[in-house]
Design brief:
CATH topology of one domain: Beta-carbonic Anhydrase, Chain A
Bound molecules: zinc ion
Order of helices and strands: HEHEHEHHHHEE
CATH class of one domain: Alpha Beta
Structural class: alpha/beta
Protein name: carbonic anhydrase
Catalytic activity: hydrogencarbonate + H(+) = CO2 + H2O
EC number: 4.2.1.1
Largest sheet: 5 strands, mixed
Pfam family, one: Pro_CA
Cofactor: Zn(2+)
Shape: globular
């Protein structure tokens, strides 16, 4: 069981005070909010590649680094980072070879069925107006998608125009960043 393994490790981690190098308060010292993908290749690589250490930034992770709903939990987290936790810049960082790029929602739905979710349940949801295929679909072009998500933040009525919102991509192997859109040219001073 993975949980048992995690708990056993954790007990030693705390006992040995291995947390000491990571102690910091909750205010991001680099004043950044970063929205990126949940991809496992980015767990350590992203932080190393952009020189972010524990305590430096608010990290918001979601599949594909996509911000779809202007009033969903990702956007809510960004607003909290900016207005309650003093983040001054927002970075949306998508990555090459993202699983959400060209993801087929039908395959996800098939996998749900393999796990015992019935067609009836799926039909019921669709009858209540939830378009599962649309909800689960990925994106076609990484740069376009980063820009689209950046614009959800930039155009948000509750985001001050003075907050720069940048869009980037990262190579999940080399850590190389590419700027899709630089927020300084758009934010007002
Ligand atoms: Zn991804």
């Amino acid at each position: 069981m993975k949980l048992d393994e995690i708990l056993a490790f954790n007990e030693k981690f705390v006992e040995n005070k291995d947390y000491i190098p990571y102690v910091s308060d909750g205010v991001p010292s680099k004043k950044l909010a970063i929205i990126t993908c949940m991809d496992a290749r980015l767990i350590e690589l992203l932080q190393k590649a952009i020189n972010i250490k524990n305590g430096d930034a608010k990290m918001i992770k979601t599949a594909g680094a996509q911000i779809n709903n202007p009033y969903g939990s990702i956007m809510r987290s960004i607003l909290v980072a900016v207005y309650a936790l003093k983040a001054e810049e927002v970075l949306v960082i998508g990555h090459l070879n993202c699983g959400m790029n060209s993801m087929d929602p039908n395959k996800v739905i098939d996998s749900m069925k393999d796990h015992g979710i019935s067609q009836e349940t799926i039909n019921t949801l669709e009858h209540t107006g939830i378009d599962l295929k649309d909800w689960l679909k990925g994106f076609n072009n990484l740069e376009d998608e980063v820009l689209r998500s950046v614009n959800v933040v930039r155009d948000h009525p509750l985001i001050a125009k003075t907050i720069p919102v940048h869009g980037l991509t990262i190579d999940p192997t080399t850590g190389k960043l590419t700027v899709v859109t630089n927020g300084y040219s758009i934010a007002s001073h």
